[in-house]
Amino acid sequence: MLILGIESSCDETGVALVESAPTGVPVLRAHALYSQIEMHQAYGGVVPELASRDHIRRVLPLTDEVLLAAGVRLGDVDVVAFTRGPGLAGALLVGAGVACALGAALDRPVLGVHHLEGHLLSPFLSADPPEFSFVALLVSGGHTQLMRVDGVGRYQILGETIDDAAGEAFDKSAKLMGLGYPGGPALSKLAAQGNPAAFKLPRPLLHSGNLDFSFAGLKTAVMTQARKLAAAHVVPVEALPLEVLADLAASTQAAIVEVLLKKSLSALKETGLNRLVVAGGVGANRELRAQLDAACARQGVRVHYPELHLCTDNGAMIAMAAAMRLQAGVQQANRAYAFDVKPRWPLDALNMN
Ligand code: KG4
Ligand code: ZN
Question: What is the pTM of this model?
Answer without folding.
Answer: 0.95
